[in-house]
Amino acid sequence: MKGWYKNIKKRNSKGVSINININKKQRDEFLTDAVKGIKPCEKTMEDLEKYIIEKYNATPYKLSVDKIKALKVNVILNYFKEVLNEAEESKFDLEKDDLIKQAKKYPAEKLGLDFRGYKLTGNEGDGDKNIIIEMERKSKYFSIENGNNDLLNDLIIYLGVSKKDIDKKSSRFIQYVYSLKEVERI
Length: 186
Fold this sequence. Notes:
- There is one protein chain.
- The protein is of the alpha+beta class and 186 residues long.
- It has helices at 24-37, 45-56, 65-79, 92-105, 108-111, 149-159, 163-168, 171-182; strands at residues 7-11, 17-21, 58-60, 115-124, 130-136, 141-145.
- Strand 1 and strand 2 (17-21) form a beta hairpin.
- Helix 3 packs across helix 4 and helix 6 crosses helix 8 (171-182).
- The chain starts with 6 loop residues before the first strand and ends with a helix.
- Residues 1-20 and 88-92 have low confidence and may be disordered.
Protein backbone atom coordinates (compact mmCIF):
# COMPACT_ATOMS: atom_id res chain seq x y z
CA MET A 1 0.00 0.00 0.00
CA LYS A 2 1.97 2.89 -1.33
CA GLY A 3 2.18 6.39 0.01
CA TRP A 4 0.76 6.06 3.49
CA TYR A 5 3.91 5.62 5.48
CA LYS A 6 6.71 7.95 4.64
CA ASN A 7 9.92 6.86 6.23
CA ILE A 8 12.42 9.56 7.03
CA LYS A 9 15.95 8.59 7.88
CA LYS A 10 17.26 10.54 10.80
CA ARG A 11 20.42 10.10 12.80
CA ASN A 12 20.16 9.60 16.54
CA SER A 13 22.77 10.93 18.97
CA LYS A 14 25.08 8.00 18.23
CA GLY A 15 24.96 8.54 14.46
CA VAL A 16 22.80 5.47 13.78
CA SER A 17 20.09 5.81 11.12
CA ILE A 18 16.53 5.30 12.34
CA ASN A 19 13.29 5.34 10.38
CA ILE A 20 10.40 7.46 11.60
CA ASN A 21 6.81 6.82 10.57
CA ILE A 22 5.14 10.20 10.10
CA ASN A 23 1.73 9.43 8.56
CA LYS A 24 -0.16 7.24 11.04
CA LYS A 25 -2.68 10.04 11.59
CA GLN A 26 -3.26 10.40 7.85
CA ARG A 27 -3.78 6.63 7.53
CA ASP A 28 -6.26 6.56 10.42
CA GLU A 29 -8.20 9.48 8.93
CA PHE A 30 -8.31 7.73 5.56
CA LEU A 31 -9.73 4.54 7.12
CA THR A 32 -12.30 6.50 9.16
CA ASP A 33 -13.47 8.30 6.01
CA ALA A 34 -13.50 5.05 4.03
CA VAL A 35 -15.86 3.41 6.55
CA LYS A 36 -18.50 6.03 5.69
CA GLY A 37 -18.55 5.14 1.99
CA ILE A 38 -18.11 1.37 2.01
CA LYS A 39 -21.14 -0.92 1.92
CA PRO A 40 -21.07 -4.65 2.74
CA CYS A 41 -20.44 -6.58 -0.48
CA GLU A 42 -18.91 -9.85 0.71
CA LYS A 43 -18.79 -12.78 -1.68
CA THR A 44 -18.09 -16.43 -0.95
CA MET A 45 -14.96 -18.32 -1.89
CA GLU A 46 -17.12 -20.35 -4.27
CA ASP A 47 -18.00 -17.07 -5.99
CA LEU A 48 -14.31 -16.15 -6.16
CA GLU A 49 -13.46 -19.53 -7.68
CA LYS A 50 -16.14 -19.09 -10.37
CA TYR A 51 -14.87 -15.57 -11.01
CA ILE A 52 -11.25 -16.58 -11.59
CA ILE A 53 -12.34 -19.47 -13.82
CA GLU A 54 -14.53 -17.19 -15.95
CA LYS A 55 -12.38 -14.04 -16.03
CA TYR A 56 -8.87 -15.50 -15.97
CA ASN A 57 -9.40 -18.94 -17.52
CA ALA A 58 -8.14 -20.54 -14.28
CA THR A 59 -7.94 -24.30 -13.99
CA PRO A 60 -7.72 -26.42 -10.83
CA TYR A 61 -4.14 -26.90 -9.72
CA LYS A 62 -2.92 -29.58 -7.32
CA LEU A 63 -1.05 -27.94 -4.45
CA SER A 64 2.00 -29.79 -3.17
CA VAL A 65 1.96 -31.26 0.33
CA ASP A 66 4.58 -28.70 1.39
CA LYS A 67 2.52 -25.82 -0.03
CA ILE A 68 -0.58 -27.03 1.85
CA LYS A 69 1.44 -27.24 5.08
CA ALA A 70 2.68 -23.67 4.62
CA LEU A 71 -0.85 -22.43 3.85
CA LYS A 72 -2.18 -24.24 6.91
CA VAL A 73 0.35 -22.51 9.18
CA ASN A 74 -0.52 -19.09 7.70
CA VAL A 75 -4.24 -19.68 8.08
CA ILE A 76 -4.01 -20.96 11.66
CA LEU A 77 -1.71 -18.14 12.79
CA ASN A 78 -3.87 -15.46 11.17
CA TYR A 79 -7.43 -16.76 11.61
CA PHE A 80 -7.47 -19.50 14.25
CA LYS A 81 -4.72 -18.51 16.67
CA GLU A 82 -7.02 -19.26 19.60
CA VAL A 83 -6.53 -23.01 19.07
CA LEU A 84 -2.84 -22.69 19.93
CA ASN A 85 -1.38 -22.66 23.44
CA GLU A 86 0.48 -19.39 23.73
CA ALA A 87 3.47 -19.35 26.05
CA GLU A 88 2.94 -16.56 28.56
CA GLU A 89 6.42 -15.59 29.64
CA SER A 90 8.70 -16.35 26.73
CA LYS A 91 10.57 -13.97 24.49
CA PHE A 92 8.69 -12.91 21.37
CA ASP A 93 10.88 -14.87 18.93
CA LEU A 94 10.69 -18.02 21.03
CA GLU A 95 6.93 -17.62 21.37
CA LYS A 96 6.58 -17.08 17.62
CA ASP A 97 8.65 -20.19 16.87
CA ASP A 98 6.57 -22.19 19.36
CA LEU A 99 3.31 -21.01 17.75
CA ILE A 100 4.60 -21.97 14.30
CA LYS A 101 5.51 -25.44 15.58
CA GLN A 102 2.06 -25.81 17.13
CA ALA A 103 0.36 -24.65 13.94
CA LYS A 104 2.37 -27.17 11.91
CA LYS A 105 1.22 -29.98 14.20
CA TYR A 106 -2.43 -28.88 14.43
CA PRO A 107 -4.66 -31.04 12.20
CA ALA A 108 -6.32 -29.04 9.41
CA GLU A 109 -9.28 -31.45 9.55
CA LYS A 110 -10.05 -30.36 13.11
CA LEU A 111 -10.80 -26.85 11.80
CA GLY A 112 -12.47 -28.05 8.61
CA LEU A 113 -9.89 -26.29 6.42
CA ASP A 114 -10.36 -26.70 2.67
CA PHE A 115 -7.34 -25.87 0.50
CA ARG A 116 -7.60 -25.22 -3.23
CA GLY A 117 -5.24 -24.18 -5.97
CA TYR A 118 -5.80 -22.64 -9.39
CA LYS A 119 -3.45 -21.99 -12.28
CA LEU A 120 -4.15 -19.11 -14.62
CA THR A 121 -3.55 -20.72 -17.99
CA GLY A 122 -2.26 -18.56 -20.77
CA ASN A 123 -1.18 -15.95 -18.23
CA GLU A 124 2.48 -15.87 -17.42
CA GLY A 125 3.47 -14.00 -14.31
CA ASP A 126 6.80 -12.74 -13.11
CA GLY A 127 9.66 -14.34 -15.01
CA ASP A 128 7.32 -16.17 -17.41
CA LYS A 129 6.16 -18.52 -14.65
CA ASN A 130 2.53 -19.60 -14.34
CA ILE A 131 0.37 -17.63 -11.95
CA ILE A 132 -0.91 -19.81 -9.12
CA ILE A 133 -3.71 -18.81 -6.76
CA GLU A 134 -3.67 -20.71 -3.46
CA MET A 135 -6.66 -20.49 -1.16
CA GLU A 136 -8.30 -21.79 1.96
CA ARG A 137 -12.07 -21.52 1.72
CA LYS A 138 -13.16 -21.39 5.38
CA SER A 139 -10.97 -18.43 6.34
CA LYS A 140 -11.22 -16.79 2.89
CA TYR A 141 -7.43 -16.65 2.81
CA PHE A 142 -5.73 -16.57 -0.56
CA SER A 143 -2.31 -15.81 -1.92
CA ILE A 144 -0.93 -15.40 -5.40
CA GLU A 145 2.34 -16.79 -6.68
CA ASN A 146 3.98 -15.02 -9.65
CA GLY A 147 1.09 -12.56 -9.96
CA ASN A 148 0.99 -8.79 -9.91
CA ASN A 149 -0.80 -6.03 -7.99
CA ASP A 150 -3.50 -5.63 -10.64
CA LEU A 151 -4.59 -9.25 -10.16
CA LEU A 152 -4.31 -9.05 -6.37
CA ASN A 153 -6.37 -5.85 -6.22
CA ASP A 154 -8.99 -7.29 -8.55
CA LEU A 155 -9.47 -10.40 -6.38
CA ILE A 156 -9.51 -8.45 -3.10
CA ILE A 157 -12.11 -6.04 -4.48
CA TYR A 158 -14.19 -8.85 -5.97
CA LEU A 159 -14.24 -10.79 -2.67
CA GLY A 160 -15.46 -7.67 -0.88
CA VAL A 161 -16.08 -7.10 2.83
CA SER A 162 -18.76 -7.88 5.39
CA LYS A 163 -20.50 -5.46 7.72
CA LYS A 164 -18.41 -6.93 10.54
CA ASP A 165 -15.20 -6.21 8.58
CA ILE A 166 -16.31 -2.61 8.07
CA ASP A 167 -17.40 -2.09 11.69
CA LYS A 168 -14.18 -3.52 13.12
CA LYS A 169 -11.89 -2.10 10.41
CA SER A 170 -10.54 -5.62 10.05
CA SER A 171 -7.41 -6.44 8.09
CA ARG A 172 -9.70 -7.58 5.24
CA PHE A 173 -11.39 -4.16 5.27
CA ILE A 174 -8.01 -2.40 5.26
CA GLN A 175 -6.83 -4.49 2.29
CA TYR A 176 -10.10 -3.78 0.51
CA VAL A 177 -10.01 0.02 0.86
CA TYR A 178 -6.33 0.23 -0.04
CA SER A 179 -7.03 -1.89 -3.14
CA LEU A 180 -9.88 0.47 -4.06
CA LYS A 181 -7.53 3.41 -3.55
CA GLU A 182 -4.81 1.83 -5.66
CA VAL A 183 -7.18 1.34 -8.61
CA GLU A 184 -8.53 4.86 -8.04
CA ARG A 185 -12.07 3.86 -7.13
CA ILE A 186 -11.99 5.92 -3.93
